[in-house]
Amino acid sequence: MVAARSLRTSMHAVLGRLSVASLAVLSVAFLATLSTTANAMKIQTVKSPGGIEAWLVEEHAVPMMAMRFAFDGGSSQDPAGKEGVANFVTAMLDEGAGDLKSQDFQERMEDLSMRMNYEEAKDAFYGNFETLTENRDESAKLLKLALTKPRFDDDAVERIRQQLLASLAYAKRDPDKVAQNEWYAVAFAGHPYARPSNGTEETVAKMTGADLEAYRKRVFAKDKLKVVAVGDITPEQFGKLLDEVFGDLPAKADLLPVAKTDPVHGGRQTVVDMDVPQSVAVFGLGAMPRKDPDFMAAFVLNQIIGGGGFASKLMEEVREKRGLAYSVYTYVYPYQHTSIFSGGVATRNDMMGQSLDIIREELQKMANGELSQTDLDNAKSYLIGSYPLRFDTNAKIASQLLGLQMDGFGPEYVDNRNAMVAAVTLDDLKRVAKRLLDTNDLIVTVVGKPALQQAKKG
């Protein structure tokens, strides 16, 4: 406690000279404090006087706080013909609010040494907020303005529009981005997940401040809000901050319905022609939902297939044994309305066909039960041993806990997770591999000039 108190005193001595960039220095100090207590982390549920519920991890050794929050919605709430509006909003919320125009707002953020940024995913709109303790109240007022009274001034909208259009023009020449977008377009044709989250040059060019405000008013609401804070704040102080920042938001969101869906069955192989020396492929198929009893076994299985870096089977077969690609990877990702098992590989145009053949063969072998106890033991050992590293900084803790909230889990998940991994058996692994890895349903999108068989040009 003496060391922690000394650290806190020395931090307060330099707060007045800190810039926004200096928060990174504090984050390192915070890391050192939190990493020693990650396994004993206490997650409190806080309910504000106004009824907003959130999670809190108190850590008072360093005078700062990180807060991460999310609203259900994301890019799946982009209206048809206005694809990219959620992404546009993420870039506009620090471009002026209330009586503060863009430059004034950002100068005020700099004066307070606060961080505020936003990002969208298919199912959620995320916010990140970091503040020094002595500036917390004033920083919270700025955050409230951004969420409740953004200006969306014409000059700021036009400036950000040009940045987004430049990014879209670059993305059209990026084979990785093209492959990802095309995979979702094929896998989820006719569903909001098929649409490009960043929009298109046509939709972004037509976006107006009124479109941005309409999205904000529909999505930013208390009934679809999840919040986690980590750092130097008490439950009572956090409750007041929750009402200060979020209390004036509408009680209920007005979300467009998004149907449950699965990637298209029957398999697809599409090629998008691009004049590049190396092709990029994205492959994938449907997976089980996050709360499916087999999800944890699928998670462990993915570690064996392609989630374990150099220890994974695909890396061994594609790179180590044959030198066909620098990397190959897989992941299991559950969305709110679907779940996917997906991966990617990049290699020379003339090697792409062989690489994909080997990937299919390995997936089929595992579907047929070619998995060993050693495979399972190694995967479980890594997943269990590395779990505390997800909680070694304030930002990581907040992100991990917010993810659990978004998935519908309680704080106890953190304590139970490793036991769930340890409980996966070889029989579980083989059963789930058979259920998951139906290569007849594999959807493959390749960008480049690959040497392939039976490829459908797109």
How do you describe this structure in short?
The protein is α+β, with helices and mostly antiparallel strands and 458 residues long. It has 17 helices and 14 strands.
Give an account of the 3D structure:
With 458 residues, this protein is α+β, with helices and mostly antiparallel strands. It is built from 17 helices and 14 strands. The chain folds into 2 domains: 206 residues, Metalloenzyme, LuxS/M16 peptidase-like (Cytochrome Bc1 Complex, Chain A, domain 1); 181 residues, Cytochrome Bc1 Complex, Chain A, domain 1 (2-Layer Sandwich). A 6-stranded mixed sheet has the order 1-2-8-3-7-6, with helices on both faces. Strands 11-12-10-13-9-14 form a 6-stranded mixed sheet, with helices on both faces.
Strand order of the largest sheet: 1-2-8-3-7-6
CATH architecture of the largest domain: 2-Layer Sandwich
In CATH terms, what is the fold-level topology of the largest domain? Cytochrome Bc1 Complex, Chain A, domain 1
Count the DSSP helices: 17
Tally the structural domains: 2
The CA-CA distance between the termini, in Å, is: 63 Å
The chain-level structural class is alpha+beta
Mean pLDDT reading: 91
Number of strands: 14
